[in-house]
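can u pls check wat happens w/ zinc ion
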Amino acid sequence: MREMDTELTQSKFKAQAGQAGFPTVRPRRLRRSPALRRMVRETGLTSDDLIYPFFVTYGEDVAQPIASMPGIHQFSVDRLAAEVKKVAALGVPAVILFGIPDEKDPIGLENFNPEGIIPRAIRTIKTAVPEMVVITDVCLCEYTDHGHCGVLNTGDGERPHPHLEEGHVLNDETLPILGQVAVAHAQAGADIVAPSGMMDGMVTAIRKALDKQGYNQIPIMSYAVKYASSYYGPFRDAAEGAPKFGDRRSHQMDPANVREALREAALDVAEGADFLMVKPALAYLDVIRQVHDAFPELPMVAYNVSGEYAMVKAAAGQGWLDEQGVVLETLLGMKRAGADLIITYHALDAARWLNEGD
Ligand code: PBG
Ligand code: ZN
């Protein structure tokens, strides 16, 4: 009885298979073996695409873990040579540096002091691993006592713009300081400067300042499209750069906007930016796609920010996600959206996994 059933089903199936309605076009034909899948793969992800961030602090032999970013530390300058050698050994071509200064003040003086934390870090890295591409963050917020990305319209008798509210981040007063910071970093040996403060005209100001000092070969990686995001929380612990009051919505972009992203990117292209960046990445893949399509001539950078990292690490730490799978899939998604390069705290793990997979 059972045999008959099977026969009946099989003959029925054969009859149906010959009928119209079963697919003749079968995408699965190209997924049958690992080699076929490799041949038709549209997007690549390699260690060459990755940029690894460092938080640099004062002290000796410091490797201070960041609680909200498992696996990430603040390192003292004397630890950097060894750490950057690990980055190079994994085939990651570039690092981006964030400094935690000794003293903070209203304009962030340490940021452009040749003996400040970042110039020291740059010299140490370039001595230890000369081929490493050193990118520096050019913003004021880690260095100012108020934690804002520019100089403020103060309330204590020297409020230069009475028509602007107290505490407003002053755009044009901030520009020359950004120029000075970029020059100080270039003088110390930085390969690329990356302004992240979302001041209008910052690329022009930095380009002019660099060129005036003879640094016309130093590219500007502009954080052209940076949103006012809650995903920066863990970074602000790591870099100790949270604003002491208020927020950054008067200069960083509204998460609701994408046409405005194209306007920001167009301005930075016109001002001579050499790279465009969109930040954060994961909730803004559509923005990466649109900016890349509008300006395909410039390398596109996506910043896979601290909050994105923290979410994956938290879930993986609980055993709820396969960390390797999720990280590589996420980074691939950013590449597929149009990013050429990704700044990511996962860079070393990802490079290791990618190299193992070869
Ligand atoms: C500072 C800066 C921030 C980040 C990079 N540069 C923080 C901010 O704008 O508040 C965030 C990076 C991250 O979350 O990983 N201008
Ligand atoms: Zn800032």
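The radius of gyration is 24 Å.
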